[in-house]
Amino acid sequence: MTGSPKFCSLFSGCGGFDLGFVNAGYECIGAYDIDLKALNVHEHNLGGSVFNCDLTTSDFPISNLCTADIILSGSPCQGFSTIGKRKINDPRNNLLLTGGELAIKSKTKVFISENVLGVIAGRHRKYWDELHQMFRTAGYKTTDIKCNGTEVGIAQRRRRLFLLAWSFPKEINVSIKSTPGGTLKDALEGVESTKNHTVIPLKKDSIDYLISKRIKAGQKLSNVRGGYRSVHTWDIPEVYGQTTNKERMALETILRVRRQMRVRNFGDADPVPKTFLYKNFGEKIINSLVKKGYLRCSSNAFDLTKTFNGKYRRLPWDKPSYTIDTRFGNPKYFLHPEEHRGFTVREAARIQGFPDSFIFSGTQIEQYRMIGNAVPPPMAEHLASFVREAFFK
Ligand SMILES: C[S@@+](CC[C@H](N)C(=O)[O-])C[C@H]1O[C@@H](n2cnc3c(N)ncnc32)[C@H](O)[C@@H]1O
User: Fold this and answer.
1) Which of these, 62, 57, 52, lies nearest to 32 by C-alpha position?
2) What is residue 274's three-state secondary structure?
3) pTM score, two decimals?
4) How far is the CA of 370 from the centre of ligand 1 (A)?
5) Which of 253, 254, 255, 273 is nearest to 263 (CA)?
6) How far is the CA of 379 from the centre of ligand 1 (A)?
7) Which tens digits make up the pLDDT trace of 226-262?
8) How far is the CA of 346 from the centre of ligand 1 (A)?
9) Does any ligand 1 atom lie closer than 6 A to the CB of residue 20?
10) Is the CB of residue 270 below 6 angstroms from any atom belonging to ligand 1?
């Protein structure tokens, strides 16, 4: 093929997916999204045509789609993600198919859709299977490609699934180049002097600050796991209230046995029977823990309160980051390795592999949302290079 392959991007967001393709030598001829703020960032950094539209309507120009060699689709993942409610009929799930329908209607040569791995788990798989089927019925070949951020040049454990469909009568062997992603320290080197790096320290009299002071790198606040990595609410008496040695023994025991003495066949823990607790610790201690807010009573059993698994995760310098999501700037979820604060927009962008020249705008919440939603540009670039080699040499 002579010249750069042209692509359009559906559900383009701020353009993480698109930047990877541009960096691999493709030309973006149209980005479509309902979010104007994200499109402003796209336009500022990537130039080109952006279309602010609802892709479930037919109220947008389709001519660019028809002249593209490739259509990218980054439809929302919230309905499929295992950290969400995973409602099978979440209306956002259908947008996965909307992307495919538009691409087939435009007779694209190549189509790529990205999503979280939850899209092939359990009953939700029907959407992904339908997307494959839709392309196969239209005469395309299809395959899945799995990527992890740590293997495509970013310091982040981020596993993502791509559906690749192509109209060429050609078999392909998927092989994505591997590039080590390094550690959080590598990713944040020299970040101090960049744009979008506004550090907001936690206020010294705040609860978040007191909790942050108790959490070391590699640890998180969690009442439902033991071991060094979990700090429990009863380890932070200045926030959650004093306990006696005996009360802490009771809490540590409940933490263990609630996962061992199972009575239900769902969830991963159960309240602990009153008889067991009264026998081992006495009624007075258990009732005192209820009064102090550490336990709650449910019929003839007691369970811990605050059973979330992992808030205030303090990332260690020497490992790749956890998966960045739209909450990444919130210190209640993620803490900087050594400072009492969350991550800045630029730090989040660095961990996603955006270059420092890529400038974000909008409110802080909007910026974290765009970044958390994005396909990491280096992941997209690895994929784009493979696709170019396979179809557009
Ligand atoms: C996962 S994000 C896309 C991220 C993007 N692919 C990237 O790499 O930066 C999903 C996007 O779908 C957009 N969206 C949701 N519903 C839409 C609709 N009905 N029409 C157009 N865009 C929509 C959201 O505004 C959001 O930007």
Assistant:
1) 52
2) helix
3) 0.94
4) 9
5) 273
6) 18
7) 899 999 999 999 999 999 999 999 999 999 999 888 8
8) 21
9) no
10) no
